[in-house]
Amino acid sequence: MIPNWQPITALQTILEAAIGTLFLIGLFTRVSGILGTLLASTLLVTFLGSIDAPVFIWFYLLSASASLTVAISDAGKSLGLDRLLEKKWPNPRLHAW
């Protein structure tokens, strides 16, 4: 067990809140989808070795797959702030993001 786990849990909470906020407002949705997939995947791997927490395995598997779906789709381009940024500053190099 890690002796100083409190900063790690605080960082996890901050990352989850930031990624969720970016999803809700539709800002940098592809980047936040990739970050959400990486975060949920690492937590999924962490809980795979735990027999006491089978519920968390399915939760993080669902979170990783939902974040990956957002990352590969045009989620922020319809109702999010990504649409407004793209209209204000059109840049073909950033069109994929």
Structure description:
Helices cover 73% and strands 0% of the residues. With 97 residues, the protein is mostly helical. It has a domain at 28-94. The radius of gyration is 16 Å and the shape is elongated. The model has no long low-confidence stretch (mean pLDDT 85).
Any descriptors?
97 residues, mainly alpha, 5 helices, 0% strand, elongated
Short structural description:
The chain has 97 residues and is an all-alpha fold. It contains 5 helices and no strands.
How many helices? Answer: 5
Q: Taking Cα atoms only, what radius of gyration do you get, to the nearest Å?
A: 16 Å
What characterizes the major β-sheet?
none
Q: Whole-number average pLDDT?
A: 85
Secondary structure tally: strands: 0
Instruction: Label the overall shape.
Output: elongated
List the helices and strands and how they pair.
Layout: H1 6-25, H2 29-48, H3 54-72, H4 76-79, H5 81-88
